[in-house]
């Protein structure tokens, strides 16, 4: 095999996290071994590695620390991309007053991405105590507390699945129907104020035997409620996270930065995306590959030439599940997002392997390099 040296290889690896490296907080056995092989004896990566997850309920820093601890290799925040990371470049919204929904340190996440004026769902319900009344225990008891004045909300940012869906669905709808002034009577403006959503995953794989609801499921609820009430389709200003092209574009940028840090002189020509979800990881990698092929003629030297998808069977996708679903009178459930034109070919991976270790071995074989 080829000897490793600065500027030799010209590919980078994109790893999904849930279902590929971890199940909940438990590392998948093959993952540790695989990462031991990906670093040299000084702990330096042999190839550029970026972690691309649709999770968005944490800061890059804490995700990097969690991965370092579980995989027992050094992972820097610059190698981690959460579903909301590309919002950094959506600077036209950074000075607007935005309502954010999700869980974890959403305020801190929003500030880190560049948003200056942030209102959380909790701030909104405290300012308007009469809005959140599905749970009887949350209703004001005797005296009605005063309403606080908040600035009008100019955009809504959905970071990830929230904890109390009824509260979030109600308040977000209030904001959309009142043009960002939820204490006021409904004006039902259309088009409504901008909505940006991160992470369209319908399902994801934790420790349970079967997949769990993801943020995509929350979006399905919000979309159908909005349509039921107004007769209009909910519109997104942006949908980011896998499978969107903007996400892979940003991931490629991070891979290039990693290659520079490793002292590579060659441009990164191929990206290998390893994931467990045909509708997110595989669809996204194949969509990006199609985009790279289409822009090939007009291309800048900087761009990769291909993005190759590799599906592992340790997460959402398993061969048995797939056979079960396919046998069922050939009805294929449509798990993709409403706004992504569904093309079944894009869910077909270039390679299907058992686990992440086999995936990385496959890549090195393709590239004619030794992994030892």
Automatic annotation (TrEMBL):
Q: Give the matching NCBIfam families.
A: CECR5, HAD-SF-IIA
Pfam families per record: Hydrolase_6
Its source organism is Denticeps clupeoides (denticle herring)
Give the family from UniProt: Belongs to the HAD-like hydrolase superfamily.
Listed name of the protein: Haloacid dehalogenase-like hydrolase domain-containing 5
Under PANTHER family, the record lists: CDP-DIACYLGLYCEROL--GLYCEROL-3-PHOSPHATE 3-PHOSPHATIDYLTRANSFERASE-RELATED, HALOACID DEHALOGENASE-LIKE HYDROLASE DOMAIN-CONTAINING 5
Q: Could you tell me the keywords of this UniProt record?
A: Signal
Q: Which GO terms describe its biological process?
A: glycerophospholipid biosynthetic process
Its GO CC terms? mitochondrion
The protein's matches in CDD domains, at most eight in alphabetical order, are given as: HAD_like (cd07511)
- InterPro entries per the record? CDP-alcohol_PTase-I (IPR050324), HAD-like_sf (IPR036412), HAD-SF_hydro_IIA (IPR006357), HAD-SF_hydro_IIA_CECR5 (IPR006353), HAD_sf (IPR023214)
Keyword NADP attached: no
């Amino acid at each position: 095999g080829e000897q490793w040296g600065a500027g030799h290889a010209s590919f980078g690896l994109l790893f999904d996290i849930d279902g590929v490296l971890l199940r909940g907080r438990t590392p998948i056995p093959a993952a540790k071994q695989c990462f031991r092989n990906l670093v040299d004896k000084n702990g330096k990566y042999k190839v550029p590695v970026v972690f691309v997850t649709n999770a968005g309920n944490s800061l890059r820093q804490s995700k990097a620390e969690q991965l370092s601890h579980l995989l027992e290799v050094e992972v820097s925040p610059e190698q981690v991309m959460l579903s909301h990371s590309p919002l950094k470049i959506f600077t036209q919204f950074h000075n607007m007053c935005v309502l954010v929904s999700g869980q974890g340190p959403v305020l801190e996440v929003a500030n880190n991405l560049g948003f200056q004026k942030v209102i959380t769902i909790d701030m909104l319900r405290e300012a308007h105590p009469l809005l959140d009344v599905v749970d009887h225990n949350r209703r004001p008891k005797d005296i009605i507390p005063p309403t606080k004045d908040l600035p009008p909300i100019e955009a809504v940012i959905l970071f990830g699945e929230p904890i109390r869906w009824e509260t979030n669905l109600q308040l977000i709808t209030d904001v959309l129907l009142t043009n960002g002034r939820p204490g006021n009577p409904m004006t039902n403006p259309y088009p409504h104020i901008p909505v940006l959503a991160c992470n369209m995953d319908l399902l994801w794989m934790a420790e349970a035997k079967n997949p769990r609801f993801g943020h995509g499921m929350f979006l399905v609820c919000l979309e159908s409620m909005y349509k039921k009430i107004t007769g209009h389709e909910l519109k997104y200003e942006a949908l980011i996270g896998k499978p969107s092209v903007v996400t892979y574009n940003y991931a490629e940028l991070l891979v290039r930065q990693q290659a520079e840090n490793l002292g590579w002189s060659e441009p990164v020509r191929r990206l290998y995306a390893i994931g467990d979800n045909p509708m997110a990881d595989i669809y996204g990698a194949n969509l990006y590959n199609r985009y790279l092929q289409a822009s090939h003629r007009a291309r800048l030297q900087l761009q990769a030439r291909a993005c190759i998808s590799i599906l592992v069977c340790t997460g959402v996708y398993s061969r048995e599940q797939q056979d079960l679903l396919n046998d069922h009178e050939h009805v294929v459930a449509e798990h993709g997002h409403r706004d992504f034109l569904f093309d079944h070919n894009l869910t077909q991976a270039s390679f299907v392997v058992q686990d992440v270790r086999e995936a990385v071995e496959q890549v090195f074989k393709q590239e004619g390099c030794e992994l030892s």
